[in-house]
Specification:
The longest helix is centred in the first third of the chain and has 28 residues. With about 120 residues, the protein is mainly α. It contains 6 helices and no strands.
């Protein structure tokens, strides 16, 4: 299957295990590792704090930022998770929100590892 290697197809391919090609855009390659590192820190520190505090406003803001920023980098699966979390915040389903911590962290670590091996 031949695909165009836009940023979105790169990470979809990565998450499905298909062979990848990194984007040619040097700015994206320069920004992506820091973007991923920042999200890993937010998931480790900020996410649990908002969860423990049951701070709906801040958790919604974090999920909204996750959604928008991940879509901008072509990380649609993570952006979709942001939308799902926003819905759970609105319904105050804190147990469901808590279940997103590990999948979010795992996806960002997976991308971080891929970048470390391929840039």
């Amino acid at each position: 299957m031949k695909t165009e290697f836009g940023l979105q197809s790169i990470f979809v391919s990565f998450l499905t295990g298909e062979k990848l090609k990194l984007p040619d855009d040097e700015l994206v390659l320069e920004l992506l590792p820091e973007f991923v590192d920042t999200w890993i820190e937010d998931i480790d520190v900020t996410f649990p704090k908002h969860l423990t505090d049951r701070n709906a406003d801040e958790m919604y803001r974090l999920a909204h930022t996750l959604k928008g920023s991940c879509y901008q980098f072509g990380l649609d699966e993570l952006g979709d998770m942001g939308i799902e979390i926003m819905g759970h915040v609105k319904s105050e389903n804190w147990d469901k929100i808590a279940q997103y911590h590990d999948p979010l962290k795992n996806k960002f670590v997976e991308i971080q590892n891929f970048l470390a091996q391929n840039t």
